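I'm curious: can you give me some protein's one-letter sequence along with its backbone structure tokens because I've never seen that pairing?
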Amino acid sequence: MDKTNRYNLRSLPGGRRGASGAGAGCYSMRSTGDEALSRRALVAKQATADHRELNSHSPLLVENVVQSTNVDESAPVKTIKRARKKWTKEMNMFILRTYYILTSLEEDTTSYLTDLHTKFLEQFPDMEDIKMEFGIDKCKINSIKAGRNHLMHYQLQTGETIDPLEENDTFEDNLSRYLVAVLVKMSILVVLLCGFAFSNAEPLGNNEAYSGYSVYSVNLRDRSDQLVLLNLQVELNVDLWDHGAPDLRNALVMVSPENKLKFLETLGENGINHQLHLADVAPFLKAYDEHVASWKQSRTNRMPFEDYPRYAEVDAYMERLAQEYPGLVTLVNAGPSFEGRAIKYLKISTTNFSNASKPIYFLDATLHAREWVTVPVALYSIHRLVENLRDQDRDLLENIDWIVLPIANPDGYEYSHTDDRLWRRTRSYNPEVSAECWGVDANRNFDVNFNTIGVSSNPCSNTYPGHVAFSEPEARYVRDILLENIDRLQLYMNIHSHGNYLLFGFGNGTLPANVAQLHHVAAAMGAAIDVNKLPIAPYYLIGNSNLVLYGTSGSAQDYGQEVGVPFSYTLELPGYGYNFVVPPQYINQINTETWEGIASSARLANLYYRARNSA
């Protein structure tokens, strides 16, 4: 069989561009129904290709950017005219070329961008004033290759809709919106990579522990290259930020200073090409913390699913919903975590879970603590079912019962906010096993092929499964939810980040008896997400977790399948190149596109449930 189990939407028909001429290349995103879905797929496909071509241009030196007064004919933008009052051609070119540099850097990122930022401020002392000066009520973009991609980014940041362009729109009147789009994207990159946040907020965690740690992008040719990295994960305790896929996606590996030489030697001995992705993790994480803090301070009346909420915020949100919707929502306290935090979940049902003809959909998040973006997705799912139920989704509430556990590993989740942004495990402590290391990989702690493949015997490793199965209360509570509802539990979705994968069992490479149905539901879910995705995100890869990624044992996904859940999955959300530290500006996009996938999978699972019960 095809080991990647891939599908794609590249051949979808339909789609319509905006007007030709000066406005060519802009798309309307307002359409609804099947036409909008096919058009979104085509927009994603075309913009992805455009972004790839844009990034193929060589980065321009900072000195050339600042000093040049002539348009570089080799650059993607051939001519840029004067736009509004004080804006000169040189200033516009400076902004555009700055963006190209930021998107193509690989090495010496911090020092290079620091210099770039300084020179940028020499040209534009008040970046925020520049953004405010431009109106955002018009849309225009020249017929340059980068157009569609930048506008998609701008729509992500503002939530605004891009209208089709009229042929008689003037370039000068509408250049502003394009420049704003570039500035928005550029400001995110400056904050994340340089550490220049537009606030005085203090970083949340202690990131100095990662000083000198570096991240490498590793080109995977085949399965054997994946196995080399998996062995290094055990031998050197490297952290696989992204496992990659041969000939499709590079792996990303974080290496400590003391293991860097051995790591690079091993890659060289195996003829594996690699590039430096991040020279020093510590300043990168510090900048991210500052950016998240700034984001929180700038948002008023925000909902918990609109940024990265802390445990107490999530708890208060669930408590409020249970009080305001007593006929629909039931709050359940599964029990205390290792450190004593209540692990709570919501049961959402129009019939108080008493109707046996309704299947149950169970989703949980943050078994791995550092995967913050999974929490908003879980909360947004609750929001769509309870507070913002729309007519097209009414069947999801009337025909299906729901269980949502937003924070399965609260101790680790809080620790990743306060002490170590990249903390993955639980926070249990067992001095008989190790007096120095805390925690267990909760997603290797389930009693299914326990401690056999894809794990480490090192108690300090991110893949240490624990000394016995279900040693962690966090894993036991998930187990209990599954077993208590097994008669009606039709679909279990274990949400993780990142990579755009939708996986099913088993982690040892054997396939469940209903693998065809598993793949059917997963492919439909992936397709529903892909037609709404950003162009910079890859298409979802679907298939068996061992064949698509790597071998595992003791996972929640496998345990759900083993005990009788017909459809048990691991969902890996998008990372957009930011890995576990996705900027909060992307949260709304991830929430909304993932909800479409959840809704699609729920409807299909419901059909299978009814067919099974009527047989």
